[in-house]
Amino acid sequence: MTRYLLAGGGTAGHVNPLLAVADRLRARDAADEVLVLGTAEGLESRLVPDRGYELATIPKLPLPRRPTPAALRFPFALRRVVGEVRRLIADRGIDAVLGVGGYAAAPAYLAAHREHVPLVVHEANSIPGWANRLGARYAEQVGIAFSGTPLPRARHVGLPLRPEIEALAAPGARLAAQRAARESFGIAPDRPVLLVTGGSSGAQRINETILAALDEILAGGWDVLHASGGFREAIAVQREGYHPVAYLDRMDLAYAAADLSLGRAGTGTVLETAALGIPAVFVPYAVGNGEQARNAREAVAAGGAVLLDDAAFTPDAVRDVILPLLADRDRLGAMAVAMASVGIPDGTARTVELIDAAVASGTR
User: Fold this and answer.
1) Per-residue pLDDT at 201 exceeds 60
2) Are 355 and 120 within 8 A, CB to CB?
3) Same domain (yes/no): 139, 230
4) Whole-number mean pLDDT of the chain?
5) Which helix (H) or strand (E) holds 306?
6) Number of C-alpha atoms within 13 angstroms, CB side, residue 81?
7) Domains identified in the chain, total number
8) Which pTM value belongs to this model?
9) Do both 283 and 329 map to the same domain?
10) Angle of helix 105-115 relative to helix 69-92, nearest 10 degrees?
11) Under 8 Å between Cβ of 214 and 322
12) Do residues 4 and 18 make contact, with C-beta atoms less than 8 angstroms apart?
């Protein structure tokens, strides 16, 4: 029996890859134990127990960015939490630790290092967070989802995909699932589909622009499946060929239905569409460190995606860029091939291989 501690969370971008690895470990050997370390505030507090895994929680410790009283207390709080995780590792006989970033990751990395337990770090973003930069210093194995992510000794393994999405990456699987997927959204099987997303909370710029240009898109013969994050104006629209939903609980069905994806350039969106060979138009979130634009860089360079700045994504951009693309089926077919060329559909297996290699070289 092997006992694994998977650490990290906070957002779906951290939790979903972690759970994909957990599922693969459990499916491979039911006798193995998988324990997840997270916080009570992150998405893991709901998603992990719902998936049937035990969740151990530690306090959320944001890294102080400027001198404050909290910054003075941070080293002592971190030391205390690392001590808690060390006791957890010892008491549960943990054989390997995988961290995916997030608030729970840094204490897990330091605890694994001090307990001499094999450590694996997986970085899903093109720009690594501080926790994974720290963990990479101690890790036996480091995996990255994007080829250019700057971490030492890193191997490009892609993103661990949710099982239902990974299943669509099998040859012919997405096409075979297309008819039923479209019917589940009330879409005629023979209609091409533009999938529009903006993340779980929606994207105001994308929502407003799509609604402003909706009649022109529909006139081009396309149906629009629009996950708006609950945008009221979208939900209220009634047009033949327009299918608004607040959220997509079955992203695999949306991908199976889609001929072209349009949305933000978050890690999951970029790497899932690439793994499935779905051509895309990315409109990176304008706030932050430019990470989303970097996420899309490889897909755009290969010819599988088009990049539009958030400020430039207007109804005019739809007329000048999106509508000609929708009308050019040959180009969309070529983009699908190019997108698939940069996709990694077996990121889960590659990440598990890193864990196996770390266990084999470990000293516990």
Assistant:
1) no
2) yes
3) no
4) 93
5) strand 305-307
6) 24
7) 2
8) 0.92
9) yes
10) 50
11) no
12) no
Structural domain harbouring 25: 3-161+346-361
The count of other CB atoms within 10 Å of the CB of residue 150 is 12
HEC-encoded secondary structure of 14-72: HHHHHHHHHHHHHHHCCCCEEEEEECCCCCHHHHHHHCCCEEEECCCCCCCCCCCHHHH
Residue 336 CB neighbours (<10 A): 19
Closest by CA to 101, choosing from 267, 343, 294, is: 267
Co-location of 59 and 137 in the same domain: yes
277-315 b/e with 16+ CB inside 10 Å = b? bbbbbbbbbeeeeebbbbbbbbbbebbbbbbbebeebeb
Q: What's the rounded mean pLDDT across residues 81-110?
A: 96
Domain co-membership, 314 together with 180: yes
Which phi and psi angles does 75 have, rounded to 5°?
-60, -35
Amino acid letter, residue 287? V
Give me the residue label for tokens 């997509």.
248
**Mapping DSSP to helix (H, G, I), strand (E, B) and coil, where does residue 360 land?**
helix
The Cα angle at residue 255 between residues 257 and 169, in degrees rounded to 5: 115
- What's the CATH code of the domain at 13? 3.40.50.2000
At 257-290, the pLDDT tens digits run: 999 999 999 999 999 999 999 999 999 998 777 8
Token readout for 356 is 């196996």
